[in-house]
Structure to design on (391 residues):
C-alpha cells in the first residue's frame, strides 16, 4: 500500500516539473526572440514571417528608414562563432528600393543584418527564433461529415507541432450578414443547429497559438470556401432551389399564359362589338329584290304583277345577330308598353287596283316600324333607317 501511495504522489510531482520546465523553455525562447542589437541606428520595425517553417520573409520600410540609400541584407542560421553570413538573393522592391528579402528556412535560430549598399557598414542587426514567427499553410484535405443538423469538419494533421495549432471554422447562411466562428484544437471541429432548408457557406483555417508557440498572431489563409445544404454539396448558394419551388414556378407560368389568353379573347369580343357600333354594315338591296333586277330589269310594275303574293322580309339574311336581337327587344318593348303599333304595314299600289286584278289588290309587306314614308311614282314605300330601295 505504501508503494502504491508513493507512485500516486510521484506522478503529479513529475507533471508539475514538466509543466514548469516547459514554461521556462518558452520564456527563454520569448526572451531570445525579443533580444536585438543595433549598429549605427536604433532598433527599427521589421515584419518577419516564417511560411510554414519552409521559407522566411523579412520586410522593412525602406523609403522611411533609408530614404537616400539602397541597403543590402544578410542572414545566417548558425550559432556561436561559426556564423556564415549569406547575402540575400531574392529582394522585394518598393519603387526600385530593396524593402525585403525572401529566403529558405534552415533552422530555428536566425540572425539578420541590414547594411549599406556595398555591405561594409552595418545599419541594423537582430537575433530571433524563427519558430516564433510561423505562419501555417491552409488546411489540406478538408472533409465534412453530416449527421442530421450536426456537421463535423476535419483536415489533415500537420507532421510537426500540431499542438501549436487551433482549427477555426466559420460559416454563414445566405441570410446572415456576418460569419459565425467556432474554434477547436487541431484538427477537427464539431458544430450543430443547422437548418436543413438553408444553404451555408463554410471556410476553415489554422491558427498558431500565442504566446506558447508564436509571438505574432499568424493564421493560415482560408481554405477554399464550400457550400452545403442539408448534407449536400452545392456549387454555390444560388443553386439551392428545391424541386418543389421549380414546380411552383412552372405552374405560375402556365397560369399566367392562360390568363393572358383569356384577356386576349375578351378583348377580341369587345373589339367586334366596338367595330360594329362604329362601322355598321350597309344592307345590299339585291338580295330581297333579286328577281326584280335579274328577270325584270328593274320594272317594278311587271315584277309586282307576277309576284303579287311575295312578302317582303323585314330583315336581311346577312344582318348581324345583334341587329335581330335589337329588333326583337323593340317588339317586346312595344308589347309591354301596351301601344298598338303594327309590326308590319301594308302599302298599296294604285296601278294594281285600277287593273281590277281579281287576286289580292294589296300586297302585304312585312316592314318594321319606320321613321319615313317615301312616295315613288304614286307608290307609298315605308322606309326604315337601315335599308334603301334602288330602282
Amino acid at each position: 500500500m505504501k508503494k502504491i501511495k508513493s507512485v500516486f504522489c510521484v506522478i503529479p510531482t513529475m507533471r508539475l516539473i514538466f509543466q514548469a520546465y516547459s514554461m521556462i523553455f518558452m520564456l527563454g525562447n520569448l526572451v531570445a526572440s525579443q533580444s536585438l542589437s543595433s549598429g549605427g541606428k536604433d532598433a527599427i520595425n521589421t515584419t518577419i514571417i516564417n511560411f510554414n517553417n519552409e521559407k522566411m520573409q523579412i520586410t522593412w520600410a525602406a523609403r522611411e528608414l533609408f530614404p537616400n540609400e539602397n541597403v543590402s541584407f544578410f542572414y545566417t542560421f548558425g550559432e556561436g562563432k561559426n556564423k556564415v553570413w549569406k547575402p540575400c538573393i531574392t529582394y522585394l522592391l518598393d519603387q526600385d528600393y530593396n524593402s525585403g528579402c525572401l529566403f529558405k528556412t534552415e533552422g530555428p535560430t536566425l540572425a539578420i543584418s541590414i547594411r549599406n549598399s556595398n555591405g561594409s557598414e552595418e545599419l541594423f542587426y537582430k537575433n530571433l527564433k524563427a519558430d516564433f514567427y510561423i505562419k501555417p499553410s491552409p488546411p489540406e484535405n478538408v472533409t465534412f461529415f453530416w449527421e442530421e443538423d450536426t456537421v463535423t469538419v476535419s483536415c489533415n494533421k500537420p507532421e510537426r507541432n500540431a499542438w501549436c495549432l487551433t482549427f477555426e471554422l466559420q460559416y454563414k447562411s445566405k441570410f446572415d450578414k456576418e460569419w459565425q466562428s467556432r474554434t477547436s484544437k487541431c484538427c477537427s471541429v464539431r458544430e450543430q443547429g443547422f437548418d436543413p432548408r438553408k444553404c451555408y457557406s463554410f471556410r476553415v483555417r489554422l491558427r498558431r497559438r500565442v504566446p506558447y508557440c508564436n509571438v505574432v498572431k499568424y493564421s493560415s489563409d482560408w481554405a477554399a470556401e464550400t457550400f452545403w445544404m442539408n448534407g449536400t454539396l452545392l456549387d454555390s448558394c444560388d443553386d439551392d432551389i428545391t424541386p418543389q419551388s421549380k414546380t411552383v414556378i412552372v405552374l405560375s407560368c402556365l397560369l399566367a399564359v392562360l390568363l393572358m389568353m383569356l384577356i386576349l379573347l375578351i378583348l377580341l369580343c369587345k373589339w367586334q362589338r366596338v367595330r360594329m357600333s362604329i362601322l355598321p354594315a350597309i344592307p345590299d338591296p339585291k338580295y330581297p329584290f333579286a328577281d326584280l333586277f335579274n328577270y325584270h330589269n328593274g320594272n317594278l310594275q311587271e315584277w309586282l304583277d307576277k309576284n303579287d303574293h311575295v312578302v317582303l322580309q323585314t330583315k336581311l339574311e346577312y344582318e348581324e345577330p345583334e341587329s335581330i336581337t335589337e329588333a326583337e327587344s323593340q317588339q317586346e318593348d312595344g308589347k309591354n308598353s301596351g301601344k298598338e303599333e303594327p309590326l308590319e304595314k301594308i302599302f298599296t299600289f294604285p296601278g294594281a287596283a285600277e287593273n281590277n286584278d281579281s287576286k289580292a289588290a294589296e300586297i302585304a309587306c312585312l316592314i318594321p316600324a319606320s321613321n319615313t314614308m317615301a312616295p315613288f311614282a304614286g307608290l307609298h314605300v315605308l322606309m326604315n333607317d337601315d335599308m334603301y330601295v334602288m330602282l
